[in-house]
Every structure is written in structure tokens, then in C-alpha cells.
Design goal:
Structural class: alpha+beta
CATH topology of one domain: Rossmann fold
CATH superfamily of one domain: Alpha/Beta hydrolase fold, catalytic domain
């Protein structure tokens, strides 16, 4: 087996707010990192050599699992329909559809006249566009309201710096219109189809301006520029076609600017000026805006309305009042109906309301499940599209007539290798946190897996930004479950599974609750017979990787292994670097250690990199992406180096950096299975090779 790399140490002393810390691996951050995001070949040679040495070491340690990884990929691939097509979505004279040709890695965007499905045309074959690129992703793909144009935003490095391509559909094989560069990936056509509004990223990777471009030209006009580096900008158009909406905000505060759909060259007008702590989103219906907001202390959000001619805060009136414990997460609006998605105790439901105030709800009868809107283009329609799924039930696309309530299934997810929901069970448990809070847990297992502590457990967690981990169907986790494992989701604080206060309860000064919640879930599961101490593998991605870093320091004895994917583990140094793309917008989430001594001390108390100490760590697999603008590659690299230097067990600490991808890893639907198989193989290996406690 290859020996682990021993990176050099270059002591660096950092003094901040009267506090001093050491960072012996700060050299792993390339000073030229902004350009590396755009061109990975510019990475400093000594850093590249080190990352490749780490990759070689990880491959060496797990070389005995290579056949298993291939088997896992084959299993996962066998659960994917080779030629899969999603339900077509009507829009006026055309229906638009996305699907995969047999064996294809990437989707194909198509359309056909709604009355002539046989007259299909290809709008974008992502497989052809991706040819010759090691990494390729499409963020947004959209047609213009008049159906004459098609545009898509592509990323060829994984850096989330996009180029927008625009084509006239009458001449798809001819010369493309001038592209748009340095885009965040967000764009929208004006309702008259004469202009494209797009979001520009600054030199730090922040979405900071909205530009307008007349179709066919290559010059752009600044429409809006955000002065606050902590706010990110987006742009959209209402389903009604009445308005273009520029949105800006952070995790606490939002603001919307309005451009009339009939006058896209008009200067934007602020709907309601930003107020600290006020969040709102606008949807247009008739002569009014429907507003999803936390105004007036509605921490779980409510729905209000205001005239579109006078959208100011003083004219907002309640439509659907605030109900604590019912967190309204999303809203859709049509000419005659509104629908909203709400969450209670980690489950969701959809409620539909007509103009007369009559309501009905969609609410399956399962222990754990998920309902989501499936989108759509039409405004003057009574059809609602939604997706239903659960850990045991593959996805189902439905269409419901909101007036008659007639419901039809448009598509059921196919599992070619076979899937019988009756062979699986799903449980919803509650773990008691140290402060008495009840933390939801979703567990999936086969119906015949013994609940006596003998089966290993994979426990997944996230817990940040109010992002809930919904209990969805996953063909990938079945490879572990079918091998006698339990798979569980810890719905820890910092997410919004129990409402917005659940998010606030794991944010800022309350952040340590996220970590203690995860540990409480692990111990509660083992107490109930789902797994046992030393036979659990913990798994977290991005901000969930922060949880992995914290629990590795807090309770390493609980785990046979820990998987940290693009993990946010160098929290103190990252939050102290205001040139990084996400740092200013993240200060409301974690605190600002550049100006607030209490925030500095709090972050230092749990930051994974700062809290590494001589202790017996479990086996750890960290995965990074070289062009990741969210969690930069040097975070897991530094963390692994310091962990290995302090580890007092014989368990390996491993790093694998994808040198050709960013935050999301490989993008092809089959290529991405390789990372999932690596994680599962590591989990199986970690449990099998961990000595009994």
C-alpha cells in the first residue's frame, strides 16, 4: 500500500481581534485561485503534485474495493432507465420535453407541436455539447415566450461561471447569436421575447449585476447593480408575463425590483425596500401580487396580497395567515388558483386555493414522503403538476385539475432491475437532543433486516441554510439497504424540517445544536436497534461536511467511518477571507469573525480544522473538487493533512480531489455513479475493517 503523503508545514501565524491561531497548511491555497476556477491548468505545480499524491494514496488504500465499486456501479446503473423521458410540458402551441436517449449521459431538450407529437425537433443535445469536455453542466435551458428562441447556460470547468448560448429556432443549424460570458447561470427572456436579462458574476464569483441584452446584439446594459457584497442577485419573469422581477438578498433579508413586462427597457422600481430580517417573494395574479413572506413576525411564513400598481409594504394584506409549525416553503400562481407547499414535522403537503377561497390539500398517508411542484409554463390553466415519492416509492409525476380535482398519473419512475416497495420499510423516529428538542429521523431498511444492532447504518445529515433534506426515493442507497444496511436521514436543526425556527435553532450562536442533534440521532438509532456504536458510517456534503468535521472531533468512537463530500471544514479561515465568493453572504449564517469577537470564539469552538487534536479518529474519506467556488479545494486538503498529523488510530484518513470538477462532482448520469459507488464501497470497507468495540 502507498504511504500517505506528508505535506510540508509552513508555519503561519494569524492574529485577529486579539486572538492568534496557527495555520501550517495555508500554502495549499493558490494565491491565483480565481483564475484556477476558470482554467484548472493554472494550479500551482506543487499543489497539483500534492493533490495527485493524495488521490494515489486513497486509491491504494481502497484498491481492494475496486471490483466492489464496479459491481456497485453496475447495480446502480441497472436501476436507471436507459432511455428515459420526462412528461412533456405544454406551452401554447408547443409541448417541451426533456429526456435521455438510450445509454446517454446527458439529457436532450426537445419540443413538438402539441397537436403533432410526431413532428419533434431537438433544441439541445447536451451529449453533443459536452463532447470534448471533461466537465459539462447546463444550469438553465429555456425557450422564449414567442417560441422563436432557445438559450442555455453552460459550465465547462465546474466553477459555476457560465456562458449563455442563444439560438433562433428557425435556424438551429446556422450561426449562433453572440454568447453571453461570465454569467451566474440565471437568465430570463422578456415577455416580448426581444431581450435577454442575465446575471453577471464579479471577480469574486458573486452574482452582483443584472444586464439586459437586445436579442441579436452583443452589447449589454446594466439594469441593476447590488451595492452590498453580502447580497446575491437573481432574475425571473412572472408566469403571467406581466413582470420581470429582479431579486436580491441574503439568508435574512430580501428585496425585489420590478420591470413591467410590456416595457422591458424601463428602469426597475423597488417593490418594498429591504428591511433587516424581512424576506419576501412576489408572484403575479391578475392585478395583484401574491407575496410569500415572514412579515410581521410570521417566522413560518404566510401569504399576503397587494395591488401590482402599488406594491409597497403599506398595502400588503393577509391572504393566508401565519400558523406556527406550518412552514410555507413555496408558492405557485395561475389565473384562477394559487397553490402552496407547506412542511410539518419533516413531511410536506400541497394546498390548492381558488379565487373564492375554497381549498383542498394533497397529503399522502405514509410515515415519510415528499410532495413537490413539477413546474409548468401555462398561466391560464387549471392543471397543477406535482411529484410524489417516498423512501420506498419511486417518483410519480401527477397532473391534477384544480377545479374538478381529477388526478392522473403522467409517469412512474421505472427501475429496470426491479423494485418492490413491499420489500422495504420506512420509519419516522424522534431523537431527544440534549436540550430536550425532538429531532426527526427517517429510516429506510428491508422488511427483513433485523432491528437488533447487528445491521450497519449509514447516517446522512446536513443542517444549514434552512435547507430541508426531504425523504425522497433514491435508487443509489438501495445498494447498501439490499446488503442489510439501514439508511437514515438525521433532520437536524439548521434545516427547516420543523419550520423556520428549526433553521434558526441551528444557526449562528445556535450552530452547535446541529452537531449535538446529529450525535443524538446516532445514539437514539443505536438504542432502538438501528445500527450499533462503531458500526455507523456518517455522511455529509458541503455544509453537511461541517457536521462531519464536528462529529469527528466530538464523538469519533461512534463511527466506523466518516464521508465528507466537498466539506466546509475550514470555517474560521474561510469566514475571515472576505474575497471568497460566499464569505460576506455567509456572515448572517455563522457570524463575522473579522469584526465580532464572540463570533470568532464561537466558530473557533467548533470549526473542524481548528478543533483537530490528538485523538483516535475513525476512517475518513474526504472528497473535493478543484474548481469548486463554494467549498474551495484547499479546505478538505488542509483538514486531511492536519487530521493525519494528529490521528492516534491506525485508521486511514483519505482525500480524493476531482481535478476536473467542482462542487457538484461529475455531471453525467452514469459518471456520477462512480462517486456514489466509491462512497458505498468505503462504507462497506470501513465497517468490515473496524475492530469490534
Amino acid at each position: 500500500m502507498t504511504l500517505p503523503p506528508v505535506p510540508r508545514k509552513i508555519p503561519r501565524t494569524i492574529t485577529q481581534l486579539g486572538r492568534t491561531r496557527q495555520d501550517e497548511y495555508a500554502w495549499m491555497k493558490d494565491d491565483n485561485w480565481q483564475n484556477v476556477l476558470r482554467d484548472p491548468s493554472l494550479l500551482r505545480p506543487d499543489i497539483a503534485v500534492h493533490l495527485r499524491a493524495e488521490n494515489a494514496y486513497t486509491q491504494s488504500v481502497l484498491s481492494g474495493t475496486e471490483a466492489l465499486q464496479e459491481q456497485l456501479v453496475a447495480e446502480m446503473k441497472g436501476r436507471i432507465q436507459p432511455d428515459d423521458t420526462y412528461p412533456a410540458v405544454p406551452h401554447g402551441p408547443f409541448s417541451y420535453q426533456t429526456g435521455y436517449d438510450a445509454g446517454a449521459q446527458y439529457p436532450v431538450y426537445r419540443r413538438y407541436p402539441t397537436d403533432r407529437p410526431q413532428a419533434e425537433e431537438v433544441l439541445l443535445d447536451v451529449n453533443a455539447a459536452a463532447h470534448g469536455h471533461d466537465y459539462y453542466a447546463v444550469a438553465t435551458a429555456s425557450h422564449s415566450p414567442d417560441h422563436a428562441l432557445f438559450a442555455y447556460a453552460e459550465d465547462t470547468q465546474g466553477s459555476e461561471i457560465y456562458r449563455i448560448h442563444i439560438r433562433r429556432l428557425a435556424d438551429m443549424t446556422g450561426t449562433a447569436l453572440p454568447p453571453v460570458d461570465n454569467c451566474s447561470g440565471a437568465f430570463v427572456f422578456s415577455p416580448d421575447s426581444q431581450f435577454l436579462f442575465w446575471v453577471w458574476r464579479d471577480e469574486h464569483g458573486r452574482p452582483a449585476r443584472v444586464y439586459r441584452r437586445r436579442i441579436g446584439e452583443d452589447t449589454d446594459t446594466v439594469v441593476y447593480e447590488e451595492p452590498d457584497p453580502g447580497f446575491f442577485v437573481g432574475v425571473d419573469a412572472t408566469r403571467s408575463g406581466g413582470w420581470i422581477i429582479i431579486s436580491t438578498g441574503n439568508h435574512d433579508t430580501s428585496e425585489s425590483w420590478l420591470i413591467p413586462g410590456h416595457d422591458p427597457q424601463a428602469a426597475p422600481v423597488c417593490a418594498a425596500p429591504r428591511q433587516p430580517g424581512l424576506m419576501y417573494g412576489l408572484y403575479h395574479q391578475g392585478q395583484h401580487f401574491i407575496i410569500l413572506t415572514n412579515a410581521g413576525g410570521a417566522y413560518d411564513f404566510k401569504i399576503m396580497t397587494t395591488p401590482d400598481s402599488a406594491p409597497g409594504r403599506e398595502n400588503w394584506h393577509d391572504l393566508i395567515g401565519h400558523e406556527p409549525g406550518r412552514y410555507i416553503t413555496d408558492c405557485m400562481v395561475w389565473s384562477g388558483h394559487i397553490a402552496w407547499r407547506e412542511r410539518r414535522d419533516a413531511n410536506t403537503r400541497i394546498v390548492i386555493r381558488d379565487l373564492q377561497g375554497r381549498t383542498h390539500a394533497l397529503e399522502p398517508d405514509e410515515a415519510a414522503y415528499d410532495l413537490t411542484f413539477a413546474g409548468g409554463y401555462e398561466y391560464d390553466t387549471t392543471e397543477l403538476r406535482y411529484i410524489y415519492q417516498s423512501p420506498t416509492t419511486p417518483r410519480q409525476w401527477h397532473a391534477q385539475d384544480m377545479t374538478t380535482r381529477a388526478d392522473r398519473v403522467l409517469k412512474r419512475q421505472s427501475v429496470p432491475s426491479g423494485h418492490d416497495p413491499a420489500q422495504y420499510r420506512c420509519w419516522r423516529l424522534m431523537a431527544q437532543a440534549p436540550d430536550g428538542e425532538q429531532v426527526p429521523i427517517t429510516v429506510l431498511g428491508r422488511h427483513d433486516t433485523p432491528i437488533d444492532g447487528s445491521a450497519p447504518l449509514l447516517l446522512y445529515g446536513y443542517g444549514s441554510y434552512g435547507h430541508a433534506i426531504d425523504p425522497v426515493f433514491s435508487t443509489r442507497v438501495l445498494s447498501l439497504v439490499d446488503r442489510g444496511w439501514f439508511y437514515a436521514i438525521a433532520h437536524v436543526r439548521g434545516g427547516s424540517e420543523k419550520g423556520w425556527n428549526w433553521f434558526l435553532g441551528g444557526r449562528g450562536r445556535n450552530k452547535p445544536s446541529t452537531f449535538s442533534d446529529f450525535i443524538a440521532c446516532a445514539t437514539s438509532l443505536t438504542d432502538a436497534g438501528f445500527g450499533a456504536p462503531g458500526r455507523i458510517v456518517a455522511d455529509g456534503r458541503s455544509a453537511g461536511g461541517m457536521v462531519m468535521g464536528a462529529i469527528a472531533n466530538m464523538r469519533p468512537d461512534l463511527f466506523a467511518g466518516i464521508v465528507a463530500v466537498v466539506p466546509f471544514v475550514d470555517e474560521l479561515n474561510t469566514m475571515s477571507d472576505d474575497t471568497l465568493p460566499l464569505t460576506p453572504p455567509e456572515w448572517p449564517e455563522w457570524g463575522n469573525p473579522l469584526e465580532d469577537a464572540d463570533a470568532y470564539d464561537l466558530i473557533a469552538s467548533y470549526a473542524a480544522y481548528e478543533q483537530v487534536a490528538p485523538r483516535a479518529y475513525p476512517a475518513i474519506l474526504a472528497l473535493g473538487g478543484l474548481t469548486d467556488p463554494r467549498v474551495t479545494y484547499w479546505e478538505p486538503a488542509k483538514w486531511v493533512a492536519r487530521l493525519r498529523d494528529h490521528n492516534r488510530s491506525d485508521r486511514p484518513i483519505m482525500l480524493r480531489t476531482n481535478m476536473e470538477a467542482g462542487h457538484r462532482g461529475a455531471t453525467g448520469r452514469f459518471d456520477s455513479l462512480k462517486e456514489a459507488a466509491l462512497i458505498h464501497a468505503f462504507a462497506l470497507w470501513a465497517v468490515e475493517t473496524t475492530p469490534p468495540t
